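Researcher: Going back to the complex we discussed earlier. I've cleaned up the inputs and rechecked each line, so this should be the final set. Can you rerun the prediction on the complete assembly and write out the structure?
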Amino acid sequence: MENKKKVLLKVENVGVSMNDKSLVKGVSFEVKQGEIVTLIGPNGSGKSTTAKIALGIYKKIDGKVKTYTNKIGYVPQKISIDWTLPIRVSDFMTLTEELTQDQINIALNLTGVEHLKNKSLSNLSGGEFQRVLIARAISKQPELLVLDEPVQGVDFKGEIALYELIKKISDKMKCGILLISHDLHVVMSATDYVLCLNGHVCCSGTPHHVVQDSKYKELFGDRASNILSLYEHKHDHTHSPDGTIDQK
Amino acid sequence: MLDDFFIRALLAGIGIALITGPIGCFVIWRRLSFFAGTLAHSALLGVTMALVFELNIALSVFLISAVIAIFLLQLQTKTNLPNDALLGLLAHSSLAIGLVIIGFLTTIRFDVMGLLFGDILAVSQNDLLLIWGGGLFILIILKIIWKPLFASTINYDLAKAEGMNPDRYNAIFTILMAAIIAISIKIVGLLLITGMLIIPAALARNISNNPIQMALLSTIGGLLSILIGLFSSLEFNTASGPSIITAALLLFLISLIKTKKFSELKK
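Model: Rerun complete. Updated structure for the full complex:
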């Protein structure tokens, strides 16, 4: 089963320097179909930089990036729309892809901002803008989604709903997701593979594996390692080798 | 009542307004007004080069603009000076070099005023052909690259990540700007072409809420400026280029009043 999943993005030992100072180096990972890979790490640890390297935004990088799809949706960490540029939400939705009105409506509806369709982008609040950014990225039905702090500025309730949506998208649309998030709860409960960065890869693996790593504890403190326990449900049954369930 | 020269002037002006309308929007969206001004200033050097080497003026202006644009990119990699300082450096030094070379050209009689402010009333058949032919070409290219250029204007990273190749479209746009300046320099003059690019687009921003609408209104604003400017220059016997820009400014001021009313209504 595992081997059948198509690899969408392969990053091998990449790094980038600016003015002779290394921003990040020696990062390797791959994103497969239907999988969520998350980058965590303190501020300035090179999370966004790594995502940008993977997306081919930098001209000069070390290492190799291979992308096996050209259907990519990107939610950048920061985007500012100048006042001189009048643009409505509906114009922004079709920025890199032609979409029908239906497709636009569906995507905006999914992130809960259909009513903002004809509003000016510059009149949106921070949270509304993030929802529009996510809607735009998923509307083109990408095979690979790169989300850089996608729920910043979104209210608490909306945050959970949006992360659920992201999880649903990865399951349903079978797209691979590269996620950058500060929210360790979400990261640990919803992702398949975690890379903990601090200028280089401190540790990586499944969430379960990473929280037990001493380097993770060093970076995020002891309390962060207890996070996983919140999400681990107690098994009231066991799985026998042939897949049937034995109730206790 | 309307003489041939005036008809030609009108046709030339209309042609230029049709191109500067949409291109001017991109100039202000991308914050390139100072860059446009620099290219326009370098046109003087282009014209003197044309005289020295007996080249076609439009071609020579176009080439010099392209050289200046490339030189700017080189300078940006060599120094950390801010862009406006580099642009000012290039604008005034190319203007100065142009004027110095004119000083050496003692055998050629040369209308510097016409070059600075344009001479729309001396438009020839060939000029018209250049404006409408070149203009059509520029507009067709703009139509083809609109989407990726617009995406690159909104956000470089986003456009690049989603496969739009922003570097290519930024370069094409720079070439289009050089081309516009080359074909309109004789008509509007190097000091006023930037005005034609920016003022109609600025007034359009005040009264529009989406990019296509702004490009259309900017074109209409440019056309009105040309008509009002040319007819009043005929009526009051004023210089045509400055009359056109003054008309554009008046329209801009009117657009300000309108937006104020709009925002009051919204309250």
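Model: Worth noting: The mean pLDDT of chain B is 89.
Researcher: Good, that matches what I expected from the previous run.
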